[in-house]
């Protein structure tokens, strides 16, 4: 099984940041009221936990989920939530997230088994979908806006997995 010990410190940091990056890109993809934006930003960590519960067999996913909140993790999450609330954050967040997804896919391909890599990449996509479903965007009747759907498709493409 692939675990934290199989990665360099830099690779591990990238892998741990990927779900936050994806969540941020999805949450900032389309205009929301302040309440919905806060809902989506708060849902990122909750979505990570819920998606991790659906993959108890993945040691890699379980190792990413903290057993307690350390200062560094809390600061990362706070920075991510703040960035979502910034105007014009969507394009930068999306570009960064897509690049991180490509890098994560490459790292997983080189260090993990195909099954573990696929499971992890699908988990990342699940996190993004859960964030997209956290709030209904202005003017939309469905929870996922066209902009969020496009970000999810771009994430899936960068990870090399189907967007179901």
- Percent in strands: under 5%
What overall form do the CA principal axes indicate? globular
Ranges with pLDDT <50 over ≥5 residues?
Answer: none
Mean pLDDT: 80
Mind describing the biggest β-sheet? none
What features would you describe in this structure?
With 164 residues, the protein is mainly alpha-helical. It is 70% helix and 0% strand. It contains seven helices and no strands. The chain has helices spanning 9-27, 34-53, 59-64, 71-84, 90-111, 114-132, 146-159. Helix 1 (9-27) crosses helix 2 (34-53), helix 1 packs parallel to helix 6 (114-132) and helix 5 runs antiparallel to helix 6 (114-132). The longest helix is centred in the middle third of the chain and has 22 residues, at 90-111. The radius of gyration is 15 Å and the shape is globular. It starts with 8 loop residues before the first helix and ends in a 5-residue tail after the last helix.
């Amino acid at each position: 099984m692939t675990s934290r010990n199989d990665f360099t410190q830099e690779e591990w940091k990238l892998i741990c940041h990927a779900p936050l990056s994806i969540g941020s890109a999805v949450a900032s993809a389309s205009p929301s009221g302040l309440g919905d934006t806060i809902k989506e930003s708060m849902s990122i960590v909750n979505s990570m936990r819920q998606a991790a519960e659906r993959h108890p067999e993945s040691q890699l996913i379980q190792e990413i989920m903290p057993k307690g909140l350390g200062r560094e993790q809390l600061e990362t999450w706070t920075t991510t939530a703040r960035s979502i609330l910034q105007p014009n954050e969507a394009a930068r967040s999306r570009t960064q997230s897509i690049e991180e997804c490509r890098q994560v896919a490459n790292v997983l391909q080189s260090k993990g088994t195909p099954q573990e890599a696929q499971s992890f990449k699908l988990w990342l996509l699940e996190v993004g979908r859960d964030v997209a479903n956290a709030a209904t965007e202005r003017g939309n009747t469905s929870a996922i806006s066209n902009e969020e759907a496009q970000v999810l498709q771009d994430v899936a493409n960068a990870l090399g997995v189907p967007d179901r």
